Amino acid sequence: xxxxxxxxxxxxxxxxxxxxxxxxxxxxxxxxxxxxxxxxxxxxxxxxxxxxxxxxxxxxxxxxxxxxxxxxxxxxxxxxxxxxxxxxxxxxxxxxxxxxxxxxxxxxxxxxxxxxxxxxxxxxxxxxxxxxxxxxxxxxxxxxxxxxxxxxxxxxxxxxxxxxxxxxxxxxxxxxxxxxxxxxxxxxxxxxxxxxxxxxxxxxxxxxxxxxxxxxxxxxxxxxxxxxxxxxxxxxxxxxxxxxxxxxxxxxxxxxxxxxxxxxxxxxxxxxxxxxxxxxxxxxxxxxxxxxxxxxxxxxxxxxxxxxxxxxxxxxxxxxxxxxxxxxxxxxxxxxxxxxxxxxxxxxxxxxxxxxxxxxxxxxxxxxxxxxxxxxxxxxxxxxxxxxxxxxxxx
Length: 395
What we know:
One of its GO terms (molecular function) is glucose-1-phosphate adenylyltransferase activity. Keywords: Glycogen biosynthesis, Nucleotidyltransferase, Transferase. By secondary structure, the chain is of the alpha/beta class. Helix content is 19%, strand content 27%.
């Protein structure tokens, strides 16, 4: 029996404003994670292990940063003569051309292409979460159920639930109520931005909704589409019981790195049965010099450590000089911490330099230092600061 034909659409075009300076010059899915990975590696690796070879990536903001990483899909076995990886940039020339203004709007703009592809199931995923999931397993359950949409769900903290689409699950796996980012969530069961749609009925519904909402626009999937499918009894839930972490904010991004510093991390990124693949770089082995102290940290190839590193993630090319201290922080490629400097509970973007004797961060909020910024010698950048100030250009 032939496998169902599955198309995965990765929505990678959002501005990623909640990640502040980290998305100032790169697409959100291109943000580094756990030293050597990028956020988009997780859904693409899921596609590979799920034996899905037709993957479309919708791009918009800073597309070059993502294109450089995708490398025609080769790391995920998507560089194929037929099918494989296809990037979908904004375009002009038809009534559906133009700048995408939401996830449902994106689906509507690509509807003719999706119809022509004639998939049995359309899997729509975001690229700002860390997780492993067999998309084929979800597709099989969806097709057996006869539902119009299957929402993959996870449990979230009560004080964080208002950031998500929240569902109530009734008898079996039927979704009986859906609320998009409610002020007062009724449950802590959230959609984790993985949806399996029946393409024909869903696209037909989008056409109707587009007419009904008029100039308001379709906006996001949770604005009109998912509530309508739920009201008609056409939505079901698929619970994900394993690790899932949204990293779309600076505190969440930092916290996810802390998860992977555990002696038993929540996901084995090197598991031969479900490895997370990425575009490999050419880096020498990490160099830990005499007198260095490293404790409970991830140290990537190409780094050089002569100082003290505790509970931190060092990406390729990071340098921590003798007498410098890095604690509970995430340092992205090429960051350098000079002699006598201290970095605590901070995220340093690409090629940031912390001058001799400077102090960055501290207890409390996460301190973020933007790409290629220099913190001068002896400078004190307090906890929770953003450097450079993301609002300074508006003055």
